[in-house]
Amino acid sequence: MGGAQSLSFAQRIGRGELDAESLALAMFEHLNACNVTGASALVAADAEVDFGPAGITGSFAEKGIPFLRDLSTAFPDLRVRIRSIMGNPSTVVAEITVEGTQSGDFLGIPNQRKHIEIDQAWVLTASTGKITSIRAYWCQSQLYRRLGVSRRDQIGG
Description:
single chain, alpha+beta, Nuclear Transport Factor 2, Chain: A, six-stranded mixed beta sheet, 5 helices
């Protein structure tokens, strides 16, 4: 029986066979489940992250994991809705909407149980089956307004 065997998603990850779009879709699915560990497994530890509006840049291991952990902790009902996704095997642009209700401090903003719905754009690059960079864009002023911040000097550490 010489038929080709279908590989599981995990096997394709292990063999480095996933493209940027597959990795992005899987990462957003893990974030929908507040599964930071699952999302992190798709990203190279030394991947560069730039969550520019929040002023967070650096390696995924040092900056990205804590950001995603803080996001999923502050918004336990987090939902990432993909509006569009396009690219090539190594780079993808995803237009997403991030929504949830704050139930913990986030980015120094005290919890006020406010609901957010923020449109974002993420650019992800991938190589050998891992995400190697993430750049995310959103309107930080809109995030502040949705979380009830009227003055930036009211934001904590």
